[in-house]
Amino acid sequence: MTTYRELGAVGAGTYGTVSKCLDMTNGQVVAVKKLRNTMNGRRGASYHRYCEMMVREICLLRALNDDHVVSMIETFRHNGHVHMVFPLMRYNLYRHLELNGGSLTVDDTKECIYQVLKGLNYIHGQNVVHRDIKPENILLSANGVIKICDFGVSRMFCSDRTLDLSIEMGTVWYQAPEMLMESTKYDATVDIWSVGILITELISKMPLVAEDTIISQLYGITKILGSDNCDLTVVDEYLRKHGFSLNLEANHAPLSQSYIVSKTAMALRKVYAWWPGYLMEIITYCLQFNPNNRKNAAQLLEMKFFTAGTFLLRFNKELKIMLDNDNARYQ
After folding, report:
1. What's the CA gap between 186 and 188, in Å, rounded?
2. Which of 88, 117, 134 is the last residue of a domain?
3. Suppose 293 and one of 20, 40, 226, 288 were both cysteines; which one would form an S-S bond, judging by CB atoms 3.0 to 4.6 Å apart?
4. For residue 173, what are the contacts with CB-CB under 8 A and spacing of at least 6?
5. CA distance 98 to 93
6. Is residue 97 domain-shared with residue 11, that is, in the same domain?
7. Radius of gyration of the chain from Cα atoms?
8. Rounded distance, CA 72 to CA 274, Å?
9. From 67, 108, 132, 228, the catalytic residue
10. Which residues of the chain have pLDDT under 70?
11. Is the domain of 155 the same as that of 80?
């Protein structure tokens, strides 16, 4: 690794370590991710799955190009390890929350989610579903620009959901109900659910539900959102197999989409009573059990949470300056 001189450790995880390094060719400080060449000292099935994730992430990062997606400078192999080089970010959103007492104001949340949705709108437009949107996978650049990262579990998807996707991806707290119920027929709407959960965490310090297991997570979500949802009949059948029940009435009948959306809004209002109406509206359309009832990223960006008042006029000017400063820094 003669091109890069290590300056210090940034962090370590299941799949490797990240170091702060100096690029000796241009004097730029970068982040170098060194990927493990074994899993638990072995090269069995888990290692081969890890290799698939690594290759998939590298291929996707080479193809994706957006202001709100982390950019990969290059990859190289050294001493049997694959290394990925990125512009050095300030820290991730999880660390940002820690430094701000565990939560953000509604206005700061709006600026953050606006950028996350812009990034997802681009990613989904490339027929890619991220599958692991959470604070740890959202970075802040030196100038405060939001960048979505960690595409190891991301996949291409079909808009008609005809392509089978794997289950048990992502982090349980942020997984959509259809993923928790082991469906393989899903699409980019699972990321929209994660955005809704992310909003609840940014403002209230905790996700809507934060359980240890898939079943208890699903049960907790359904108990909060209520049983006035036609999709819960299927959920109840799934939960019964694992010793849980929603105790739905025998005459539980399908309900209209507008009724379901309004009942979801009422259920969420009981949890977040003080939140302003435009904020409640956007999380209501993110946290719909039926993925067909969720709005996509482009539609969410057009909601009054962002369009009311002077937010877009002000923040888009600020964002352009932040992006210009980033581009000058990372050239």
Report:
1. 7
2. 88
3. 288
4. 134, 197, 207, 209, 210, 211, 217
5. 9
6. no
7. 21
8. 41
9. 132
10. 1-2, 14, 38-47, 158-170, 226-239, 242-256, 259, 331
11. no
Residues 117 and 26: their CA atoms lie apart, in Å, by 33
Task: Please report which residue ranges of 147-294 form alpha helices under DSSP H.
Answer: 177-180, 189-204, 214-225, 232-240, 257-271, 277-286
Is 328 a domain residue?
A: no
Identity of the residue numbered 139: L
Distance, in Å, from the CA atom of 125 to the CA atom of 321, rounded to the nearest integer, reads 25
Task: Examine the fold and report which residue of 58, 88, 118 is the final residue of a domain before the chain moves on.
Answer: 88
Residue 147 marked ligand-binding: no
- Nearest residue to 5 via CA among 80, 19, 90, 141: 19
- Catalytic (active site) residue 231: no
Size of the chain, expressed as the number of residues it contains = 331
Co-location of 26 and 154 in the same domain: no
> How far is 306 from 318, CA to CA, in rounded Å?
15
Tell me what pLDDT residue 230 has: 46
Whether residue 325 is contained in a domain is answered as: no
Dist. CA 34–CA 85, nearest whole Å: 9
Residue 233 corresponds to which tokens in the numbers above? 């009949």
Q: What is the CATH number of the domain that holds 256?
A: 1.10.510.10
Retrieve residue 24's tokens: 């000796």
Q: Are residues 231 and 299 in the same domain?
A: yes
Pair 83, 96 in one domain: no
The CA distance from 56 to 37, in Å, is 16
Assigned domain for 331 exists? no
If asked whether residues 81 and 227 sit together in one domain, one would say no
Domain span at residue 63 reads: 4-88
The whole-model pTM stands at 0.89
Q: What is the pLDDT of residue 29?
A: 93
Q: What CATH number is given to the structural domain containing 11?
A: 3.30.200.20
Residue where the block lists tokens 């982090």: 171
Give 294's DSSP letter.
S
Q: Within 13 Å and on the Cβ side, how many CA atoms surround 260?
A: 19
Q: Domain check: are 63 and 38 in the same one?
A: yes
Query: Which residue in the block uniquely carries the two structure tokens 């650049």?
Result: 141
Q: What are phi and psi of 17, to 5 degrees?
A: -125, 155
